[in-house]
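In this section we walk through a basic example: taking a raw amino acid sequence and producing a predicted 3D structure, encoded as C-alpha cells. The instruction is simple. Fold the sequence below.
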Amino acid sequence: MKRILIDTDVILDFFFDRKPFSENSARILTLCHTGKITGYVTSVIISNTYYLLRKTASHEKVVNKLKQLLSFTDVLTTDKSIIINALNSGFGDFEDAIQNFSAESSNKINVIVTRNTKDYKVSSLSVFSPEEFLRTLKNSD
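The resulting C-alpha cell sequence is shown next.
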C-alpha cells in the first residue's frame, strides 16, 4: 500500500477550494479516507493549517475540520534529531526540511505529495505533485 506524506499546500488547496488544485487534493484525501492509501501529516502541517484556516473561520470550525482530517490520516513524529537534520540539510526551506526528515525517519513513507516539488530536490524519497501522484496510481492499476 502507498504511504504518503501530504504536504501543507495540498491540504490547504482542499480546505480553501483553491482551483484548479483542489480537485486533485480532494481525490488524494478521499483515497486516504477510503483506506486505499495511507496518508500522513506532521504536527507542523497541522499547526500551519490551523493558523491559516483560523484567519477565515472560528476556532471551533477549524478544530472540527482538523479532527476530520486526523480521523483518516496519521501523524508522524518530529523530534530533536529530525530538527537537527533539517537544520543541517541542503534544504532551502526549513519547514520542508522538517517534513522531509520526519517522513524519512519514520521508515513508513513511500512518497511526499506536494505542489512544491522543487523544494524537495535533495530528498531521498520520491516526491510528486498531486497530479503526478494520481497518475502513478492510475498507471499501477
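Looking at the output, two observations stand out. Residues 63 and 90 are 34 Å apart (CA to CA). The radius of gyration is 14 Å. In the next section we compare this with other chains.
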